[in-house]
Amino acid sequence: MSAAIELKSVSKRYGPKTIIDDISFTVEQGEIVGFLGPNGAGKTTTMRMIAGFTTASSGTIKVAGHDMATENKQAAEKLGYLPEHPPLYDTLDVETYLRFVAKVKGVPSRSINSDLDRVVQSCRLEQVFTREIYKLSKGYRQRLGLAQALLGKPEVLLLDEPTAGLDPGQIHETREVIRSFGEQHAVLISTHILPEVTLICNRVAIINNGRLLAVDSPKGLQQASEETSRVTLQVSAPADALQQELMAIDGVLSVNVSDIDSGSDIVKAECQVETRDGIEAEIARITTARWGLHGLERLHPTLENVFLRYVGETSAEQEAV
Amino acid sequence: MNRVLALYQKEILSYFRSPIAYFVVSVFLLGTAYFFLYNVFLTGSATMDGTFANMGMLLVTVSPVITMRLFASEYSGGTMELLTTLPLRNWQIVIGKFLGAVTILLLMMFGTAINLIPLYLYGNPETTTILSGYIGFALLGMACLAVGQLFSAFTQNQIVAALITVPVLLAFWTIGHLQSFQSSTTLHAIFGYVSFSLHFGDFISGLVRSEAVAFYLVVCAIALTLNTSYLQWRR
Predict the structure, then answer these.
(1) Which chain B residue's Cα is nearest to A108?
(2) ipTM for the complex?
(3) For the sheet containing A58-63, what is the strand order?
(4) Pairing label, strands A17-27, A32-36
(5) Choosing among A49, A61, A85, A89, which should be mutated to test the B contact, i.e. which has the most B CBs within 10 A?
(6) Is the CB of A87 less than 8 angstroms away from the CB of B18?
(7) Domain of B207?
(8) What is the number of domains present in chain B?
(9) pTM for the whole thing?
């Protein structure tokens, strides 16, 4: 069975400018993938190409097995899309708007009411169901945008920054909605909120300057990072002796010792170590046997560090070019 | 077809939940009533001829107000992203919107029928001439709306859409007057053929000519096809 979303060597050019450069990745059914990148990285353009709002200059995009270049209507029937700005008709009321979207999506008339109930309940729109859209707060507008995307239980859900403008309680609820929906469907979420990705996504795709830098699970990305194999410690010890002692430990690859300040005998050592567990305990045992240990930390990188490293690297490359 | 119908319903609701439809219909009916009273009482004859001619001119100037929002507001409101990603083909979007605008046109048209009451009460008008006038009015209106809808697709500013449409429609309306300045018979024929007002004149005088019917329908077809192609090109 083919992937729910499949991008093969997709590029988007406006005149001489390349906005998206040769991107390939897939999203499987039952998977939530976070599309991560700074503002202007090309997230929204990619989402728009997958949704069929714009076409790719080259490469192929398949949604639920349908090529967006030739079968975009069939693909659209299986797609729910929340754009960056919720696409709402201010003059309509919530119910009329949702009915309109449901009808155009081809939801059978006998099940429109139950489908409306389902999305209204999961997006907590009961209180504003009969209200005109222009009277809604930003949070409700965002949730209404999500509700229209969920109508018709699409196989593939594309959400461009779905929690933007929500308060913390609403963010939590919205994530739960996405998480439960993603259990049976394929979801691609574009965001620059890193904890969101760690909390709900099975995999992460990092994009910057229109290029895809990495696709992996959040844990995989963290493990792949150099940060996992770093231990820092503060010890009251002569720098040279400490350096020798640490280098002698099996699994320590390099050591860099520096003074914290000139008034004290405490030095700071940064060790690159092998990624096996328990190495920090061994370092602690050996150091405390001879000197006073004031602090020891195995650096567990946040996704933020990983992200900043990837984004930083591409920015540096761009500048070098 | 259900999808086009859903879009059509949305268009009608959008018209009536904003002041545009009320404004346009009111202005048109008031204008028509004024011209009707002026023409009938000035000439003392129970015909709609003069009124139809004025209605045509009035229509050319108010129809851009009906069409200006059709696409421009979808762009500026960000809802075009919804429409083009829903399972709707471009031609379905164009037709759904066009039918919405035509409904407003027909409302205006049926509203003017109130003028016929005194005409039939106190005079003896020719029913067939009046009918052909209304057929011509509907066709002229459809052509104006199709052209206006096309220009609305070119910009996200409704005012700009209307400001482009008005001179274009006025040009189509007045181009027939340039006929008499032409020495070349080809230009004379072309100016006559593309004139909105000359074809409408036939309907007013009671002639439903297939050439005139075809002309307005071809204008609609060209404008709506260009509109569909433009939406595709924008992607």
Answers:
(1) B2
(2) 0.87
(3) A17-27, A5-14, A58-63, A66-67
(4) unpaired
(5) A89
(6) no
(7) 2-234
(8) 1
(9) 0.82
